Amino acid sequence: MGRIGNIKDRKNKQDSKKASIYTKMARLIAVAVKEGGSDPEYNAVLKAAIDKAKSNNMPNDNIDRAIKKASGSSDGQNFESIIYEGYGPSGVAVIVEVLSDNRNRTAGEIRHAFDKHGGNLGTSGCVAYLFDRKGQIIIEQDGNIDEEALMMESIEAGAEDFQADGEAFEVITAPEDLLTVKETLESNGYTLLESQIIFMPQTQVTLNEEDQVKMEKLIDMLEDNDDVQEVHHNWEQTEG
């Protein structure tokens, strides 16, 4: 499916921005440690943050340093989780997940990105109803995976949906079932490309060529912001 290819393309782009990605992951880990402690065995949020950092190729040394820094930190730097909603070119629905230590600064930067690329920042709830909260697991097709077997194992583990596009597989779960399905597939020998809770669009919209360029620039500008953790949208990207 198009969405799967988009994920792989995004991860390739992220690989060229390692320093920024590591900053974002360290921030995510810091928040998790401060909320529930430094032991991932007893802190599910931290375990998920570490898994996400590893899926973004963050070295174990960097992860360990981030945990230790957060554990011994008394610098008073407190990050809060904020969700911004808005519209891209031609009314594309956009949700931006943020971890910020300065709400006013971040809001201004997010607003500027929307304004600069043919969109506008909206109010809370303006587009959230167009998305469902879901767990998403991506597994790359390495040539050795039997699609039907993976689909059956995923459904038996509790997945709600399964998609394939030839290059990768997408497993969709209820948010509360993501960890169980993830651990089951890993124990069955599958290597996961990505595993996270997402905002999944209920329907997708297409854009003309001019608005596609604007939308790409909007996404890039948002993702280049260290405060931004994830950008979700309902733009149906087509290849070519």
Which terms summarize this structure?
four-stranded antiparallel β-sheet; alpha+beta; Alpha-Beta Plaits; single chain; 240 residues; globular; Arc Repressor Mutant, subunit A; 3 domains
CATH architecture of the largest domain: 2-Layer Sandwich
Q: Return the domain count.
A: 3
Radius of gyration of CA atoms, rounded to a whole number: 18 Å
CATH class of the largest domain: Alpha Beta
**Do you know the CATH topology of the largest domain?**
Alpha-Beta Plaits
Report the sheet-strand fraction. Answer: 15-25%
SSE class: alpha+beta
Task: Outline the low-pLDDT stretches.
Answer: none
What do you see in this structure?
The protein is built from eight helices and eight strands. It has 240 residues and is an alpha+beta fold. The protein has three domains: 70 residues, Integrase, N-terminal zinc-binding domain (Arc Repressor Mutant, subunit A), CATH 1.10.10.200; 81 residues, Alpha-Beta Plaits (2-Layer Sandwich); 71 residues, YebC, transcriptional regulation domain (Alpha-Beta Plaits, 2-Layer Sandwich). The strands form two sheets. Strands 3-1-2-8 form a four-stranded antiparallel sheet. The protein has a four-stranded antiparallel sheet with strand order 5-6-4-7, sandwiched between helices. A hairpin with a 3-residue loop joins β5 and β6. α2 packs across α4 and α6 packs across α7. The radius of gyration is 18 Å and the shape is globular. The two termini are 15 Å apart. The model has no long low-confidence stretch (mean pLDDT 90).
